[in-house]
Amino acid sequence: MFNLLTRSRDALVADFAGLTRDRKYGEGHVEAGRFIVIDTGGITGEEQGIDAAMAEQSALAIAEANIVFFVVDAKAGLTSADELIAKLVRTQGKKTHLIINKIDGMNPDVAAADFYRLGFEHVHFTVASHNRGVRSLAEDVIREAIEEDQSDSESEDAGIKIGIVGRPNVGKSTLVNRLLGEERVVVYDHPGTTRDSIYIPYERMGKRFTLIDTAGIRRRKNVKEAVEKFSIIKTLQAIDDAHVVVLVLDARENIVEQDLHLLGFALDAGKSIVIAVNKWDGMNPESRSEVKAELTRRLHFVPFVNQHLISALHGTGVGNLYKSIEEAYDCSMAKWSTNMLTRILEDAVLEHQPPMVRGHRIKLRYAHQGGSNPPIVVVHGNQTTALPDSYKRYLENTFRKVLKVKGSPIRFEFKTGENPFANKKSKLTPRQQRTQNKRNDVSKPNRLGKAAKKKQAPRQR
């Protein structure tokens, strides 16, 4: 239902109960305007443990919504859980539409007989798996709601998209709740709590942000459930969609290869990065020194990335993340003039010239910007394909230092100008043609034999 209303595939779909755990937001469109859909987890009334936290998220979604779509299963019939939810939405005083789903192969009147006992005025029939009745539901109900509230304006820009990524159980959801200042996503002391990528738009000090809480990624050999495989795909898609990636590490565990794989994926995607070392509270000075030494040793290849030692549970150092996030975003979106980039290139070449290739010096003539997020610097010259990687790293470090780029990678593209006369034959003047012919005659080998030479020799008297 969520995917059909938003015309997307953002919500995971699988044939077992309890898949959805957090509130998931999505944007839909009708002719009258735009609307926001909130997908929630199921409520049974007998939740314990993580299911209780999931049910609490569903109750918060009901309180937040303007309209409630109460979806029931026609094949299962009226259940005690349906009666519990009906009572819950009535106490909230929300305008509720009863949606009787899965009526394929059934008489709608017969399917709805038991559900009329719930006493809802607005009743609709759908088959969400085949997209029957959902489009008319959106067009009629949501258009009416939008027209009733003319003060609703079109949604604004999502602002800076911040992707929170890391291994399972490192505290990503706790960090999201701390950044938002509310219990927005389910937090439970068990790996794999978050299964989908949750987009949360909000505003802080007049600036718009969108937090993306993602599922933790384990090593491939440990991934066995199909749902976890889809969750990993959603996480990788969220990294591609984010402007800034906050990589959350566990201070009480050493940096493992999986952390470096995630960092490498974000760098390859060209995303700005901020590293948050979580669970810093309660560690003794000796352990903290070991963690700092390990960070310096394993992360030496990304000296431009800011590192923060935080405690998401208690909020220590979390507020400082915003400064690094905004700095990394501004650097990734920066615009530089061709004149400035060319001057930096000339100074770099003057300080340290490119090497010789086959007796000729590589020449780098000028540079200009080729894009943003990440910033791309295009360098033009000759024989640039022979430029060694060490010199490319030298240029990257020089540009990063002069331009003061923090948190964002810089990509370089090297282009070699083509010779315009490579495939053209020069036209010779008559004098040049005669000279060329003489040279060709002189260079021709003499194929006459000895007998012919004696025959041609003049007689001597």
Report on the structure:
- This protein is an alpha/beta fold and 461 residues long.
- It has three domains: 2-148, Rossmann fold (3-Layer(aba) Sandwich), CATH 3.40.50; 160-332, 3-Layer(aba) Sandwich (Rossmann fold), CATH 3.40.50; 338-416, 2-Layer Sandwich (GMP Synthetase, Chain A, domain 3).
- 36% of the residues lie in helices and 21% in strands.
- It has 14 helices and 16 strands.
- The strands form five sheets. The chain has a six-stranded mixed β-sheet with strand order 7-8-6-9-10-11, with helices on both faces.
- Helix 11 (338-351) crosses helix 12 (389-403).
- The N and C termini lie far apart (119 Å).
- The model is unreliable at 150-156, 187-195 and 221-228 (pLDDT under 50).
Question: What is the secondary structure topology, with strand pairs?
Answer:
Blueprint: H1 2-6, E1 24-30, E2 33-39, H2 50-64, E3 67-73, H3 80-92, E4 95-101, H4 108-112, E5 122-125, H5 134-148, E6 160-166, H6 172-180, E7 198-204, E8 207-213, H7 226-241, E9 244-250, H8 257-268, E10 272-278, H9 285-298, E11 306-309, H10 321-332, H11 338-351, E12 356-357, E13 360-361, E14 363-371, E15 376-382, H12 389-403, E16 411-416, H13 430-443, H14 450-456
Parallel strand pairs: 3-4, 4-5, 6-8, 6-9, 9-10, 10-11, 15-16
Antiparallel strand pairs: 1-2, 7-8, 12-13, 14-15
